[in-house]
């Protein structure tokens, strides 16, 4: 219900940024503490955010990897592939599995 009321009772003790949910505050506090509790067992890179850790891990496991059909470079997130496609310029066709369709001219 806080979403609708705008209430933000959880306040960061360092920068005073306020949050509607306690979990969001705890996640934010890692910025100040430098805590990075999730570490990749493949390459040793550590993450403060579990979601970023999971997406990064996909690069090593090959799960849900998005590959550029022009140069073969691969990305854990589709949005990074779309951003990368701009380096090639011009028209291109890419299969976007998450959208379950083919789109032209993403650039």
TrEMBL record:
Q: Kindly give the InterPro entries that the UniProt entry links to this protein.
A: Znf_C2H2_sf (IPR036236), Znf_C2H2_type (IPR013087)
Instruction: Give the molecular function GO annotations.
Output: DNA-binding transcription factor activity, RNA polymerase II-specific; RNA polymerase II cis-regulatory region sequence-specific DNA binding; zinc ion binding
Task: Answer yes or no on keyword Lipid metabolism.
Answer: no
Q: Which keywords describe this protein according to UniProt?
A: DNA-binding, Metal-binding, Nucleus, Repeat, Transcription, Transcription regulation, Zinc, Zinc-finger
Short name of any one Pfam family annotated for the protein? zf-C2H2
**Compartments in which it is found:** Nucleus
User: What are the record's GO terms for cellular component?
Assistant: chromatin; PcG protein complex; transcription regulator complex
Principal localization reads nucleus
The protein, known as: C2H2-type domain-containing protein
Q: Which organism is this protein's natural source?
A: Timema bartmani
């Amino acid at each position: 219900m806080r979403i609708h009321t705008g209430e933000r009772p959880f306040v960061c003790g360092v920068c005073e940024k306020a949050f509607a949910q306690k979990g969001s505050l705890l996640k934010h506090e890692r910025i100040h503490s430098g805590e990075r509790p999730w570490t990749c067992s493949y390459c040793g890179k550590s993450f403060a955010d579990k979601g970023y850790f999971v997406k990064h891990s996909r690069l090593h496991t090959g799960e849900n990897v998005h590959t550029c059909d022009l140069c073969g470079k691969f990305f854990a997130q589709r949005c990074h592939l779309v951003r990368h496609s701009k380096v090639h310029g011009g028209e291109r066709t890419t299969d976007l599995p998450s959208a379950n369709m083919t789109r032209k001219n993403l650039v």
